[in-house]
DNA sequence: GCCGAGTGTCGAAGCGCTTCGACGACGGGT
DNA sequence: ACCCGTCGTCGAAGCGCTTCGACACTCGGC
């Protein structure tokens, strides 16, 4: 036993590589980082040794010395009313693009609260943060401001100064839906929005969509009602039946809630209203989902991939101390399916 | 300017705490880790300084010195046919319980492949791995074996020796569903399983459920057919209609696919078969989902929370060098809803 | 009154990496 | 022939933490 040595980790270290290649440790480091010129000969010799020994730099040591962990945090919502598949799509998009920038992703849930963010950021476990599902008046915003680490929000709080935010332009999305219906001659439409709880906590995308719908309706002389919409079949049924009882002339529906689409279809069928003959339906939902319903939905997809990618790019820019725009809103794109058609002459004799 | 010093990070270090509390650095460390006895007086003085300075240990330094990153990797599937909400539930359960063990979670997607796992593990970014959606003959299994880091699989590969696996006992789940139907007097049942692609790649849970269904059926003298089931409405409709055309006597349905439940209900309605009067339906799906359908489903939930928690516990045990069982199968629990009832006298005059 | 077994604390040696300054070797301008 | 700038490499100093051995003390037992 040689004194107080601990057991070696087993993994080869940069010193092993240096020894094997017959160069200094720092040279190996520079080969890896490219921060100084290295002759082609040395370079290839070092790389060969690295491959041969199966060397992987120790993340902790690297983080300690360089003050960069090459890890970003992804703060996901765990709340009710979130659109699970969309969130999942975000997450994978974020992981994939982060890897493309040579970063890994640490998964946080908001339920550890501000303390969690603080712990992570202060402990230098991550270099920057990506925060999803931001509310209009989000308590985490001031925290992010003085966390001392770059961050990007997915979503748009009421006050975005000094922050970096990315999102779909939900207001435009709402407008686009209504404009599509208006063009088809619909004069009375309704928005089946997010669950009431989502509006209550002031989640941006729900409010902005509603605002867009109402604004576009007003502009085009369309009568519009907006109501929240829960995700379970029974409740959807009740709401939709009630809606048509009150407003029998409605011929256009904008559905914001992927989970509600199925029940809405079923309810319309039960009410004897066919899609798109009697009622046209536009949904805000993933393309993949829309393609699998019958009839195929006319929809405005939430481009989770793009948003995720964009968010990562912006965060990387900030990590590199480059300036980043405060607000990036991606333009919505409406894809016409088979669930919308020209408005029929109003037939008030419908049941 | 004092020579070659770099800019200090801004965060207080353990040395700052030690100085402030008037003790040695090592004493602070021992207060934090509890690995040596510290007098109550010193202890509280140190803790006060920590709080006052807002000290958070640097994760990199800690990882480097202790050879433990206090981070585990969660390897999520990104494939088609996965049950997104269930995966999400897993993920959150894992994050939450990991935090309870003072660990964070690094999110990996399998699409970086084995190289990704290797990079992470060799670089000591994580102490252990949690791998989801394991296939019967999963290519990652041999890799995990010689990765040199503890791992726990969620799912059950064909050969589980030397591994640690957690899952719902899907075989029993299948049995329980059939037994429930058999007890109610059903004599012809069908399993609408996972999408064909899921069987093709040999995903354990799908195969095991099918085996359980068929075995229980045989044992109870029930006639059973099992068929894969895609997730889009049109396809479901085709399959189900075809099924009843071929086997008009079927009165019991086991549906394994949350996404298929809605379309199945719609199809049955379209075929003029009422639930549960004409057809009883048992689903393998989350409780929350089952509660929101009408009628409320009889179901065997996948206890994603429990599985996730259990997986983390096992991984922690392995990280502490304690032995862990190779296979942990959680017993399924059937909850009776309103979608199953006693089999009606066979009425072959049905359309 | 002395020994041995704790207790509580300290100092120092790393953990594996990055980065800074230094320095020899070379080459082009004058 | 000389100086200077550039290129390629090296050595060493940390980064902030854990952990080991050492070293006072205190206390009970004989």
Ranges of chain A where pLDDT stays below 50 over 5 or more residues in a row are 347-351
Order of helices and strands of chain A: HHHHEHEHEHEEHEHHEHEHEHEHE
Highest CATH level, the class of the largest domain in chain A = Alpha Beta
- Could you estimate the helical fraction of the residues of chain A in percent? 40-55%
CATH architecture of the largest domain in chain A: 3-Layer(aba) Sandwich
Provide an overview of this structure:
The structure is a homodimer of 351-residue chains. The first copy, chain A, is α/β, with parallel strands linked by helices and 351 residues long. Chain A has three domains: 14-57, 434 Repressor (Amino-terminal Domain); 71-168 and 304-330, Rossmann fold; 170-299, 3-Layer(aba) Sandwich (Rossmann fold), CATH 3.40.50. In chain A, 44% of the residues lie in helices and 14% in strands. The first copy, chain A, has 14 helices and eleven strands. Chain A has helices at 14-21, 25-33, 40-53, 59-66, 84-100, 113-122, 140-145, 170-183, 196-200, 204-219, 233-246, 258-270, 287-291, 304-319, and strands spanning 71-76, 104-109, 128-131, 151-154, 165-168, 188-192, 223-227, 252-255, 280-283, 298-299, 327-330. Chain A has a six-stranded parallel β-sheet, with helices on both faces. A five-stranded parallel β-sheet of chain A has the order 7-6-8-9-10. In chain A, helix 8 (170-183) packs parallel to helix 10 (204-219). The longest helix of chain A is centred in the N-terminal third of the chain and has 17 residues, at 84-100. The radius of gyration of chain A is 26 Å and the shape is elongated. The model of chain A is unreliable at 347-351 (pLDDT under 50). At the A-B interface, helix 4, strand 1, helix 5, strand 2 and helix 6 of A face helix 4, strand 1, helix 5, strand 2 and helix 6 of B. Chain B binds a DNA duplex (30 and 30 nucleotides) through residues 4-6, 9, 13-15, 23-27, 29-30, 33, 35-39, 42, 57-58, 60-67, 124.
């Amino acid at each position: 036993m040689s004194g107080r040595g601990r057991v070696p980790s087993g993994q080869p270290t940069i010193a092993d590589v240096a020894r094997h290649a017959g160069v200094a440790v720092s040279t190996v480091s520079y080969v890896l980082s490219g921060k100084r010129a290295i002759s082609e000969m040395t370079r290839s010799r070092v790389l060969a040794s690295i491959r041969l020994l199966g060397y992987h730099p120790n993340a902790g040591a690297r983080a300690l010395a360089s003050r960069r962990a090459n890890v970003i945090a992804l703060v996901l919502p765990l709340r009710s009313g979130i659109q699970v598949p969309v969130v999942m799509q975000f997450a994978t998009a974020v992981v994939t693009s982060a890897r493309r920038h040579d970063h890994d992703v640490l998964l946080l849930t908001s339920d550890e609260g501000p303390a969690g963010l603080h712990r992570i950021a202060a402990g230098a476990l991550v270099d920057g943060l990506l925060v999803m599902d931001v509310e209009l008046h989000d308590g985490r915003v001031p925290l992010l401001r003085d966390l001392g680490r770059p961050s990007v929000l997915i979503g748009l709080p009421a006050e975005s100064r000094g922050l970096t935010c990315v999102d779909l332009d939900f207001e435009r999305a709402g407008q686009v839906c209504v404009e599509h219906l208006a063009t088809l001659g619909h004069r009375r439409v309704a928005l089946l929005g997010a669950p009431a709880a989502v509006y209550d906590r002031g989640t941006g995308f729900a409010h902005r969509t509603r605002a867009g719908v109402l604004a576009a309706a007003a502009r085009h002389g369309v009568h519009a009602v907006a109501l929240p919409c829960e995700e379970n079949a029974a409740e959807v049924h009740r709401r939709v039946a009630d809606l048509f009882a009150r407003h029998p002339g409605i011929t256009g529906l904008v559905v914001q809630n992927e989970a509600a689409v199925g029940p809405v279809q079923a309810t319309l069928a039960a009410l004897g209203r066919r899609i798109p003959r009697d009622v046209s339906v536009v949904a805000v939902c993933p393309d993949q989902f829309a393609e699998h319903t019958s009839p195929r939905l006319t929809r405005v997809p939430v481009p989770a991939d793009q948003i995720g990618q964009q968010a990562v790019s912006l965060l990387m820019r900030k990590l590199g101390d480059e300036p980043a725009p405060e607000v990036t809103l991606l333009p919505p794109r409406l894809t016409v399916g088979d669930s919308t058609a020209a408005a029929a002459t109003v037939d008030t004799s419908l049941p």
